[in-house]
Specification:
With 85 residues, the protein is mostly helical. The chain contains three helices and no strands. The chain has one domain. Helix 1 crosses helix 2, helix 1 crosses helix 3 and helix 2 crosses helix 3. It is globular, with a radius of gyration of 12 Å.
Length: 85
């Protein structure tokens, strides 16, 4: 999460993970929501950077990137492990 501090990364990760959990109809828990949000943001920032789209901006942009990344991670987890997540 470029442009935000560690504390804000945790807060945004929790919010993004919770939103992704609601969108994907998943039940992960608070800690996993934070992890999904932060890792999702890292993954999506890397993907966007690799295709040449800068994801720089404020915390709203980073939250959207984190939500999309967390949804992607939930989707990939379901593909590997099944629909129970």
């Amino acid at each position: 999460m470029t442009g935000v501090g560690w504390f804000m990364a945790i807060v945004l990760g929790g919010i993004a993970g919770w939103i992704a959990e609601q969108l994907m109809k998943s039940d992960m828990g608070v800690i996993m929501n934070i992890v999904l949000g932060i890792v999702g943001a890292i993954v999506m920032n890397a993907i966007l950077g690799a295709i040449g789209i800068p994801a720089s901006g404020g915390w709203i942009i980073q939250c959207l990137v984190a939500v999309v990344g967390a949804c992607l991670l939930i989707f990939l987890y379901r593909m590997i492990r099944g629909r129970t997540a």
